[in-house]
Amino acid sequence: MSKDCLRLVAVEPLADYRLRLSYADARTFDVDLGEWVRTTKSLAPLKDKRLFAQARLGFGGHGVEWIEDVLDLGADNLRHLAVEQAGGIGHERIWNWLAETGLTLDQGAEALGISRRMLIYYRNGERPIPRAIWLACLGWEAVRPQGRSLPMRVAPITVPPVA
User: Which of 25, 42, 130, 145 allows an S-S link to 4, with CB 3.0 to 4.6 Å?
Assistant: First the structure.
C-alpha cells in the first residue's frame, strides 16, 4: 500500500478559514482551520482573508502553502485534523500512543491483538482506525500492564459495606 493517503492533489480555499483537500487516495475532506488561525501565532497572517484565499498545493503535494518556504501546513497534519473533525480517529493518535507508552510496533500490535502490518497501516493513515482499536489503546493505558502481556482479567473492585 502506498502513502497516497498523505499526498494532496488539490486544495480549494473556502469561506470562514476552511479548505477542501483532495488526496491522492481519492478521499476529499473539508477542514476548518479557524481555531488554528485564531490561536496559533505562526498562522496569524492567515487572519487576512485575502491571504488565506491564496492557499495552494505545496511542493509534491506534501502540504498547503500560502507563502513559499514561510507559511505552510503539512498534508499529514491537515488530514489528521480533517478526519478528527469528521468524527473519525486521526492517525496521529496511534503515533502519540506508541510514543507515550514507549511500546515498539511489535509490542503495540501484540497489546492490541492485531498484526504489526495493520498497526503500521493505522499509524500511517493508510487505513481508518476502527473505534474498537482506539478504545483498546485507551484500555491499555488504563491498565498499564507490567511485562509483555495484558492481564487476562482485571481484579474485581471491592466496595466496603455502607455502615
Answer: 25
Contact 46, 53 (CB under 8 A): no
Cβ atoms of 131 and 89 within 8 Å: the answer is: yes
Taking only the tens place, the pLDDT of each residue in 59-101 is 999 999 999 888 999 999 999 999 999 999 999 999 999 999 8
Contact 74, 90 (CB under 8 A): no
Backbone angles phi, psi at 41, to 5 degrees: -55, -45
How far is 34 from 36, CA to CA, in rounded Å? Answer: 6
Contact of 63 with 75, CB cutoff 8 Å: yes
- 100-154 pLDDT tens trace: 988 999 999 998 999 999 999 999 888 999 999 999 999 888 887 666 555 444 4
* Grid coordinates given for 155: 481484579
All three cell numbers of 44: 496569524
- Kindly give, in sequence order, each residue whose CB lies less than 8 Å from that of residue 84, ignoring residues fewer than 6 positions away: 90
Contact 36, 43 (CB under 8 A): yes
